[in-house]
Amino acid sequence: MPQLPLPNLIIRRLGCLKYEDTFERMKLFTSKREKITSDEIWFLEHFPVFTQGQAGDNSYIIQPAEIPVIKTDRGGHVTYHGPGQITGYVLVDIERLGIGVKDLVNLIEDSIIETLACCGISGETNTKSPGVFIGNIKKDLVDVKKISSLGLRVRRGCSYHGFNLNVDMNLEPWLRINPCGLNIGMTQISDIAEEKFSLADVVNFLADIFAQKLGYNNYKTETTLD
Questions:
Q1: pLDDT grade, residue 137 (50/70/90)?
Q2: Domains of the chain
Q3: By CB distance 3.0 to 4.6 Å, which of 84, 168, 173, 197 could disulfide with 190?
Q4: pLDDT for res 106
Q5: Is 61 exposed, middle or buried (0-12, 13-18, 19+ CB in 10 A)?
Q6: Does the active-site annotation cover 16?
Q7: pTM here?
Q8: Beta strands of 27-117 (E only): which ranges?
Q9: Which residue among 118, 119, 158, 180 is the active-site one?
Q10: Residue 183: what pLDDT?
């Protein structure tokens, strides 16, 4: 039997939203989706929040102060979300796409690395820790910083949660946690790139690269969750 064509990919550009509301909408979308449901990627910012993954170690949360800490059902440890950072939620049917969880992780990391290359930045991955790093990760961690964190959940063959990519944000809250338990610093595009890139510029790169890597020739853009 010939394979049915994929439904359209939907890219949602959503502005700045509360984490709790978006988390509930992701879970609802995933629980209600069917095999004919379009894959979606949500690009947005969050108001300041720390989120703790299923592998979370409370000792990694050092001094959250006024910033809330929210327990989630994604993989990984503690991370920070705030304005000036792109959060990308990858809501795709990996069974329909014919890929595994590791394949999706690699696809996300490769998409971020290609996006950074569009900004004139060289990123690297580490087999021991998901995400994207700046510096020679294969040598040691002394001069390495992290620019993107990643954590997923798969339910009924479909993914949700995703990644964050620091673009032009206040990095101070990262000092209040031990990001992913790695004891390394964080960095962002605005501190490295020779040119100025807006969040919209970076989302444009990400959207085109993700669509291509997921096997879509084009995508539909929406600006709300309705």
A1: low
A2: 9-215 (3.30.930.10)
A3: 168
A4: 97
A5: middle
A6: no
A7: 0.94
A8: 40-46, 49-52, 69-71, 78-81, 85-91
A9: 180
A10: 80
